[in-house]
Batch of 2 targets.
Target 1
Amino acid sequence: MKVQHLCTVILFMLFMLSCSEEEQDDVLYIPTNVNFTDSELALIEQTLDLPASPYNYANLPLPDHFKTDEATELDNTPANNPITDIGATLGRVLFYDKNLSANNTVSCASCHQQSAAFADNLKFSEGFNGALTRRNSMGLINSRYYENGKFQWDERAETLEDQVLMPIQNHKEMGLQLAELEAKLEQLDYYEILFEKSFGSDEISSDRIAKALAQFIRSMVSFNSKFDEGLIAAGNPDVYEDMPDLPNFNEQEKLGMDIFLRGRNGATCGYCHGGAQNVNDAAKNNGLDLNYADKGKGEFTGNSSDFGLFKVPSLRNIALTAPYMHDGRFETLMEVVEHYNNNIQAHPNLNFRLTTLDDGDEEEGEVLKLYLSQEEKEAVVAFLHTLTDQTIINDEKYSDPFK
Ligand code: HEC
Ligand code: HEC
């Protein structure tokens, strides 16, 4: 009896121990002691250039058009991973650390460069062993505002936390297994301090790596463009309901914004690239090809109704992220506008917004064309340039902290 009793107690204790270990990170840790001591800073400064108290990532001074109910609803920050200043600081270090690749040659920032709005300017990017990615690198700004929270051109990643671990393991991009990654980072002194401050203990797990990277990326919000200045000057109207005339825009930019929002001949950019954040919540087909070499969302769902569907990227800072589309096929914004103007292909999954489907007068499902003049095309391009934000691409808190 006694032995049995003892066994039960031991088993129970073992059970509790294993539970508490697994659930450790489910208890939300709120960092308090985030400033580095002199000795911590001395150690960090051997490798990194970090401020003694972290930059502000958690409470960005967002303008009112980012604080509306609609904008707040778009925010995909999960309850178990709120942005903290120190967590995002750790994310920044990870983002720029070449130790995250198998042969220490590539970091996230190799393909997501601050000067290119966290994309790069190549059609396809080179991974750790020289092999090219099969798709065009994506800009990361405003990742936080994709309401469905899914990532990659084909929306394969269910959450940003899932996404950020994919390139590390990808055999072309960084080529490291997660267990190898954890072991590697454990050898680096600065991570001991940064994980401890961010998560309450110096344990390095892929879960925590994912959380920190996601915090850093979610902190990349762009709100200092000419477009934002105009919205603020106009009293923060609702972009789509009020379709305001922005007082700081010249005539060409006003015309471009009008074409973007109101459309021409039924085709309207803003239907898909919507809101002040210029985002959309589901992958769509925009008629690039009749037959797609890359099947996009259909490639992993296997559904023919998903063939040719790709994520609708935010157009914030789009002038900085050339070339364009999932395969980088267009080198300039003018080529992109020309695609919508006159070259949309009647793919079976072409989104109805680019067809006459909801226009009773014409035959169902015919492809729309914008029929823009050269002057009007230039105006759309000029409007897209008003979405460029020089602040975020020069802000030190998003820059490379390595010496
Ligand atoms: C070798 C180049 C390369 C490296 C290194 C790289 N990426 Fe990417 N990244 C890409 C490409 C290409 C895509 C598009 C992938 C696709 O859709 O198949 C992408 C997509 C993404 C996306 C999805 C964005 C969206 O809006 O859906 C995120 C987030 C991202 N990368 C974060 C990271 C992080 C974090 C790292 C480092 C851990 C990293 N990337 C390393 C090339 C790279
Ligand atoms: C039916 C929805 C839809 C409409 C309407 C639409 N787009 Fe797009 N747009 C997309 C999708 C989907 C992609 C990505 C397609 C791909 O890469 O295969 C995209 C990509 C883009 C890109 C390239 C983004 C990048 O990061 O490479 C630009 C620029 C763009 N669109 C501008 C416009 C403009 C300007 C208009 C209006 C003339 C417009 N779009 C209308 C769905 C739409």
Target 2
Amino acid sequence: MSPPANIRTWVFDLDNTLYPAPALYDEIGVRMTDYIARKLTLATAEAQELRERYFHQYGATVVGLARHHAIEAGDFLRHVHDADHSVLTPDLELRDLIAALPGQRIIYTNGGGGHAQRVLVSLGLDSLFDAVFDIESCGLAPKPQRESYDCFLAASRVEPTEAIFVEDTLRNLEPAHDLGFTTALVGPVHPEPKPAYVDHWAVDVKALLRGLLS
Ligand SMILES: [Mg+2]
């Protein structure tokens, strides 16, 4: 299988798509809970409950905090993502696979606060992407809100029918497919039957790219 002939742009999610996020996210989660507890004067358990509720309700905790508690999003995002990135190491095979992709490559993530840029450096991938689009690029509208995709398309000038959208989060693929993207789900979740809005599926991003490039 060679890269689909119509694909000129490769849009990648970051966390759990280009690297396994749990190692880093355990610390980021603790930092989020501690920040919420301190700012809102809550017990740790209450802060954690709020963090998880806003994540599920809005797609990103920061959206609920900004909307309901006047927390300054940039400060929150910078603080919580200031985690120990030494748990990440460069993956040379992934770097070679991404370097071999024809066309432009863009990161589109619900993270913020410089998180994507730091992770790309830690993974040795920072020179391979043409742009990083994060939750602060578009007024805190996260995937899967349609507003986020509309803003991404307007800012990047990507033509979705000439682009592939690579994600580990199933719910983020349906709006992308509706807009005309080719979609690829990466990771262990393989819903049966496969939803019509999932065009490709692989156990991880390297398996996906190996298949598309071979
Ligand atoms: Mg992800």
